[in-house]
Design goal:
Layout lengths: L7 E4 L5 H12 L3 E6 L3 H13 L3 E6 L5 H15 L4 E4 L14 H26 L6 E6 L12 H24 L3 E8 L5 H10 L3 H11 L8 H12 L10 E4 L7
Parallel strand pairs: 1-2, 1-4, 2-3, 4-5, 5-6, 6-7
Length: 259
């Protein structure tokens, strides 16, 4: 407990799944949590209220990560309420299980806009407010193992997460060279059971249980991941324990990529 005491943390896509795991864990560790999402307003509001009932501090704000105006508005509200932002987790993302031949340009642009441009805007405007507070700050970008390896049925998703992987390193160097107290790292989950992976299985025309079985058999630790597995990796990167870590990538996949 207390690894994020005194910090203000904003989680995109923070209402459920991997983002929800971050919101709950960061609140337990002492952060004032800003839960954001574009669509799941009821879920985000309920999660923030649940955190408060457990003795934590949280608010919900609606945020379309692809909108510059939304980023400016939401960060303005965060500064107005808390006076600062210390941690930003760029987690919001989408997936599409189609081959390169099946993927339309509109679908490609949709995924790149949310998964890559949304992270770009988060970093851009997050840095703008973080560099002013004079405290150690951390940006954690949620990428994927598909930024490191390829999957034949996920070309747009792989490309978008690869963009996040490379952009993270560039942004980390930019902040360091500018003398900002802002570290920037990426986390690369393997298969985690969320609505997103349920949709992937459906796109492939199989049940999630079948999808789960395929990944479980290929994962050395013998199971797929849970949102909390990713949240714990981000917790380290968000805390001052990782004060000498920037531009790094953390694979959290049960050993899948190590094969």
């Amino acid at each position: 407990m207390g690894r994020l005491d005194g910090k203000v943390a904003l989680i995109t896509g923070g209402a459920c799944g991997i983002g929800g795991g971050h919101s709950e864990l960061f609140a337990k560790e002492g952060a004032k949590v800003v839960v954001t999402t574009r669509k799941k307003v009821d879920e985000g509001t309920a999660l923030a209220e649940g955190i408060k009932k457990q003795g934590g501090e949280a608010i919900f704000l609606r945020l379309d990560t692809t909108s510059e105006d939304d980023w400016k508005k939401v960060l303005g509200e965060v500064i107005k309420k808390y006076g600062k932002l210390n941690v930003l987790v760029n987690n919001a993302g989408v997936s599409l299980a189609k081959t390169i031949e099946e993927t339309s340009l509109d679908e490609w642009n949709w995924i790149m806009n949310i998964n890559a441009a949304g992270v770009f805007l988060g970093c851009k405007y997050g840095i703008e407010v973080m560099k002013k507070n004079g405290e150690p700050c951390s940006i954690v970008n949620i990428s994927s193992i598909d930024a490191i390896i390829g999957e034949a049925g996920l070309p747009a998703y792989c490309a978008s997460k690869g963009a996040v992987r490379a952009m993270t390193k560039s942004v980390a160097l930019s902040c360091a060279e500018a003398g900002y107290s802002i570290r920037v790292n990426s986390v690369h989950p393997g298969l985690i059971h969320t609505e997103l992976t349920d949709k992937e299985a459906k796109d492939y025309g199989i049940s999630f249980n079948q999808y789960n079985k395929l990944f479980t058999e290929a994962t050395p630790l013998g199971r797929i991941g849970e949102p909390i597995d990713i949240a714990y990796a981000s917790l380290y990167l968000a805390s001052d324990e990782s004060r000498w870590v920037t531009g790094s990538e953390y694979v959290v996949d049960g050993g899948y990529v190590a094969r």
